[in-house]
Amino acid sequence: MQPDPFHRDCGSRKVLDRIGDRWSVLIVLTLADGDRRYGELAGRIDGISQKMLTQTLRGLERDGIVTRTVRASVPPRVDYALTDLGRSLVDLVAGLEVWATTHLAEVEAARARYDAR
Amino acid sequence: MQPDPFHRDCGSRKVLDRIGDRWSVLIVLTLADGDRRYGELAGRIDGISQKMLTQTLRGLERDGIVTRTVRASVPPRVDYALTDLGRSLVDLVAGLEVWATTHLAEVEAARARYDAR
DNA sequence: CAGCATCCGTTGCGATACTG
DNA sequence: CAGTATCGCAACGGATGCTG
């Protein structure tokens, strides 16, 4: 039997939750064009708190989407990179980004119309 | 200048939030193969509460992704359908569903590995 | 530098009860 | 049938301070 996200207890729901997550999308997108250090991610993703960055990275690592590599040096350096699984996701989340940006104006117009009644 | 979800205050963030939302994805997917009544949606999307169904439908309506049509009859009947904008989203969210189901096993294996250390 | 721990207000969301 | 209203808890998520 196929996994079916329409069914309550199917794990695909959890997977959907993660890949749909706001920060996950932005992190995967950032790592799509190259490995990044912790601080680089923090700098590129405007408005993310340290807590959410760490938390989201841990979740992505746990799900096998990113790898975390610690280099024993002073100061410490930690690199994050996409796994094969993570790379298989890039086109999809890039598609979300493209849709969001290209249809932003339409959505905002629709909202204005809706709120005005 | 292009809308950029990497910037804190860009509206594309909000758009991304909506289309990535767990229930939005399932609702759009359900409406993708035909208009549905409120109760049909409730029946097909296992585990959604009345509150979340209504709330998510309102959000999608506000964003111009679905339409809500009330037929004046007894008992009342309300039909939900995708707009053109909503249909432009179907392939994308279907892609999310496919990814989630096809990679579910990999993700669960990765989780088990991660948790076992 | 790359985090972890803690506090704490805000929001999400389910359960339940009621209505046109 | 298709909602709305209210309650209450749990999770989200930011700010701050500390550490190897």
From TrEMBL, chains A, B:
<dbReference type="InterPro" id="IPR036388">
    <property type="entry name" value="WH-like_DNA-bd_sf"/>
</dbReference>
<feature type="domain" description="HTH hxlR-type">
    <location>
        <begin position="10"/>
        <end position="108"/>
    </location>
</feature>
<keyword id="KW-0805">Transcription regulation</keyword>
<dbReference type="InterPro" id="IPR002577">
    <property type="entry name" value="HTH_HxlR"/>
</dbReference>
<keyword id="KW-0804">Transcription</keyword>
<dbReference type="GO" id="GO:0003677">
    <property type="term" value="F:DNA binding"/>
</dbReference>
<dbReference type="InterPro" id="IPR036390">
    <property type="entry name" value="WH_DNA-bd_sf"/>
</dbReference>
<protein>
    <submittedName>
        <fullName>Transcriptional regulator, HxlR family</fullName>
    </submittedName>
</protein>
<keyword id="KW-0238">DNA-binding</keyword>
<dbReference type="Pfam" id="PF01638">
    <property type="entry name" value="HxlR"/>
</dbReference>
